[in-house]
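Hi R.,

Here's the chain you asked about this morning:
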Amino acid sequence: MRVRRLPFRPLGDLGEAEFDAASEGCGSQLEWGQNTALAFQALWVPRPCAVMPAAPSPGADHYAAIAYWAPLMHLMAFSLGWTRPFQGLRWWYDAGQPTDDPRLALIADVWAADGQLDWFTLWLGGHDPDWRPWFDGVAEPGDNFVTHRPTSRADGWLAALRAASERSQSAEPLVGGSDPLHLGYHWAGPLQPSSQACTLVHGPPGAAAASFTAEVGQGWYRKLAEHGSTLPPIGERSWHVEVVVRSLGYLGTYRRSRRTGLWFAGKHRFHEKGQ
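And the predicted structure, written out as tokens:
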């Protein structure tokens, strides 16, 4: 069953204080962050109840495209924990677009189902961004950390993907410069320093469970890393931390990878493909 879609509506006139508070809550400047909460909520609610932004039509408002694409950046960076999003999507295509994970299923049900993900992947492939430097001070990779690389040349694969996209007659949404929607910067709000008060609570003795709560989206991931570093060692097991950001909702169960040093949700084999 398809995800219900929400038509784009301009934000309207907001006062400076209201705009700043809303931006802090969603973890990005509001034009980019307004649908972040919808994406995280859509991971957990039944599909008939999930709501996501509708794909912008050709010639649509510039901010309609921003509001459509920005939530995908947050899912890739702060749920799957990908620092090389092109590598992650390239693996996903090569693997037959598996959906045995809520994040991958949502990507399939929204951006791929809209016929837009091919174009987005082409845009990423044009510069193959490495987000790892953004995570400096947040993660320290382990000695056995290896970067995933596809087995075949990307340029030939991209050419084939472009040909398929053009045959689909789906309008190319990311034109007009190397980063026309400024997506390459506005995804990183959860990594910014934050003075917000957060809590980390251990589960029952002997259980590798904890819960982390932040108030707002701005800086929540950095705070998770800071608080998570205080958890005591538990041998070969990993802490499973339930993460809630009050302004966004329940984000999922997170673990810290011993290989990448990053916090992520879901299966480690999916997380490591985006490095």
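The mean pLDDT is 90.

Let me know if you need anything else.
M.
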